[in-house]
Design goal:
35% of the residues lie in helices and 13% in strands. It is built from 3 helices and 3 strands.
């Protein structure tokens, strides 16, 4: 698992005691779906990832981002449902799939797509 390391190609672990966030945002489904992370929570990569993050940020609220909708959104919702059924109370999904445009480098959103996703985010936060 690469999660404890902050910088690619650097095996220096992140010092989690330096900062405790109120909110942790995780974009599931883009580069994680092919590695088993987005699968059912009972699969080892997902549960190990979740347990690791939760152990480091015990009081944080988690927002799982969906960028593409469809089956990926369904799977992110399934992960959140599984977490909640396991007793997790500080987690939800925000989908920005209606704004993602894949017009930037390597299928990332361009500036207009980023701005549109920001507007989706603001609408979700006002719920």
């Amino acid at each position: 698992m690469r999660y404890p390391y902050a910088i690619p190609n650097d095996d220096t672990p992140w010092n989690f005691s330096l900062y405790q966030p109120d909110v942790v945002v995780i974009n599931l489904g883009r580069t994680t779906s092919g590695r088993g992370i987005l699968g059912p929570l009972t699969k080892t990569p997902t549960s190990r990832l979740w347990q690791t993050i939760r152990s480091k940020y015990a009081n944080a609220y988690f927002i799982l981002i969906d960028m593409y909708g469809g089956i990926r959104l369904t799977r992110v919702n399934d992960v959140v449902a599984a977490l909640k059924s396991g007793g997790e109370t500080k987690v939800e999904v925000v989908s920005v799939s209606s704004a993602q445009n894949n017009l930037g480098c390597n299928q990332h959103p361009n500036v207009a797509g980023q701005a549109a996703m920001g507007r989706c985010w603001l609408r979700a936060c006002r719920r």
